Structures are given as structure tokens and as C-alpha cells.
Amino acid sequence: MRIYTRTGDRGETGLFGGGRVKKSHPRVEAFGGVDELNSVVGWAVTTVSDPEIRARLGSLQPDLFTIGAHLATPATNGRRPRLPELPNGRVEEFERWIDEAAAELPEIRAFILPGGTPGAAALHVARTVCRRAERRVVELAAEDHVEPVILTYLNRLSDLLFEWARLENHRSGGEDVLWAPGRR
């Protein structure tokens, strides 16, 4: 099987379940943003030193693939091909993980700059890519149906990635990089 099909050479791509759209279509931007997030999460898994964070982070990649599949599949005549179940219950799990991390971390007293350890920096990159993916999904939702759990999932995931970046710094003995306006 060849990796190239030549079907996208004119700036269009096929959707799961049929149909073609421009590669700049909001649906493609949405599932492309989630695909980019999944790639960055995969990279973060390789840089995070804390085994608990690394394991939990790796558990998100199948969720993100499922979310991407749902975003890549518009309802055609009110029907969709059979898709994997969306990760119900994950948002509550995220909130529990956020609360656990917050209980271990010092109180935030200033804005935190992305950085610290390589793992924390990778988690901050994942957080910003998550926010961009979320914006793309919001844009798609303005013109077509998007399951509400997808928006909630991405919103809470960005919060979790922020706390994990802080936790990665903390558990490694490092500190958050605080923003001090006016200092160089």
C-alpha cells in the first residue's frame, strides 16, 4: 500500500464516511488541530520524567484519536458511520487529577512562564496546542454539530496540562519560571 494517493493534490481531502472538502475547511482545521495535539502529547510522553504523569499522559492519545475521528466524520443525511465511543467520564477524571496536582503544588502567586525542565516545557507546548485545537473545534461548532463532550474535554485537558507542567517541575526538584514584568 502506498502512503500517497494523489487525491489531495488540488487542496481537498476526503472525510470519514464520504465527501470531500477543502483542506482549509473548519472541519479539517478541527481534526487537524487535535491530530497536532496528539503528536505533541506523544512527544511530551518521551520528555516527561515523572512516571505517573507520563503514564496518564500516554493514556490520552487513544482519546484524542477518537475525538479526531468524530470531528472528521460529518453526519450525512443524519447518519454517521460507526465510530468508537467518546471518552465519557474522562472530564471528571481530569478534574480529579487537577485537584490531586493542586494539592501537592505551592500556591500560584504570579503568572508562570512556559519552561523549567524539558518535560514541563513540553507539557506547556502541549497546553498551548490544546488551546489552539479547542479554538478550531469551537469554530467548527459554530457552523456544524460537535458533541459537547469534545469541547469540555479539550478545555479541561488544557487546564490539566498546565498543572502537570507545574507538577513535573515540582517533582523534579525544579521550580516554575515566574513572570516578573520589567525584568530581563
Write the SSE topology.
Blueprint: E1 12-14, E2 20-22, H1 26-47, H2 51-58, H3 60-71, H4 90-104, E3 112-113, H5 118-141, H6 148-171, E4 177-178
Helix pairs in contact: 1-2, 1-3, 1-5, 4-6, 5-6
What does this structure look like?
The chain is built from six helices and four strands, in the order ββααααβααβ. It has a two-stranded antiparallel sheet. The chain has a two-stranded antiparallel sheet with strand order 3-4. The chain has one domain: Hypothetical Protein Ta1238, Chain: A (Up-down Bundle), CATH 1.20.1200.10. It has helices spanning 26-47, 51-58, 60-71, 90-104, 118-141, 148-171; strands at residues 12-14, 20-22, 112-113, 177-178. 57% of the residues lie in helices and 5% in strands. The mean pLDDT is 90. With 184 residues, the protein is mostly helical. It starts with 11 loop residues before the first strand and ends in a 6-residue tail after the last strand. Strand 1 and strand 2 (20-22) form a beta hairpin.
- Tell me which CATH architecture applies here: Up-down Bundle
Per CATH, what is the topology? Answer: Hypothetical Protein Ta1238, Chain: A
Strand content is 5-15%
* Element string (H = helix, E = strand): EEHHHHEHHE
Helical amount among residues, as a percent range? 55-70%
Radius of gyration in whole Å, from Cα? Answer: 18 Å
Looking at CATH, the homologous superfamily is Cobalamin adenosyltransferase-like
> Can you count the beta strands?
4
Bulk shape = elongated
Strands in their spatial order, largest beta sheet:
1-2
Integer count of domains: 1
Low-pLDDT parts are none
Structural class: mainly alpha
Major sheet description:
2 strands, antiparallel
- The average pLDDT value, as a whole number, equals 90
- Our count of helices gives 6
CATH class placement: Mainly Alpha
**Terminal residue distance:** 54 Å
